[in-house]
Amino acid sequence: MKGLSFEEKCKRLLELFYETSDFFQLKELEKIAPKQKGIVMQSVKEVLQALVDDNLVQGEKIGTSNYFWSFPSSARHLRTTKLETLREQISRIDNQLKDLDKEIGVAKVGKDQSETRTVKLNELLILENEKKRIEKELDSFKELDPEAFEKNKQNSENLSQKINTWTDNIYALQSYCSKTFNIDGVSFLKQFEIPDDLEYL
Fold first, then answer.
1. C-alpha–C-alpha distance, residues 26 and 14, integer Å
2. Contact between residue 79 and residue 148 where contact means Cβ atoms under 8 Å apart
3. N or C: which terminus of the chain carries fewer CB neighbours within 10 A?
């Protein structure tokens, strides 16, 4: 079975904070995260530190213990600020790229090659790479967006409700068939190819 990527581990550990809205010590997270989020215990500390470094999780020493927490409301503010900063950087680089394109166009007129043109082309390449790096960072922030997490959580809850409604219907039909046609529960499930471990979510 393929292990989780580091980004997926960060996403899942952040989900744990959002879902519980609680405070944790590292030892507690090392016990809970493997069970609830499938993150191996040995990597919890590294993942937690990465989230702290990115200001997605807050930590503070209280007495002799370190506690960590993260709430969607505070994370949303931090991420909104970071997203705005990244978008401003991309906008600034776009403007620089346009200016360099113009300068390169001027440098090309009547010349096959020049030192100025070479320098500008190198600057253009550096800016394009920087823009790609920032866009990639921007995409990673979208993946951990608290608003997207809440939306996915709501969708999951809606699906669970629908599944439970169908489970209700199956049990009602099973009861009806049992009373009307004297069919026992095991035979009913087998007849309609329904798993015998059917239960509510």
1. 14
2. no
3. N
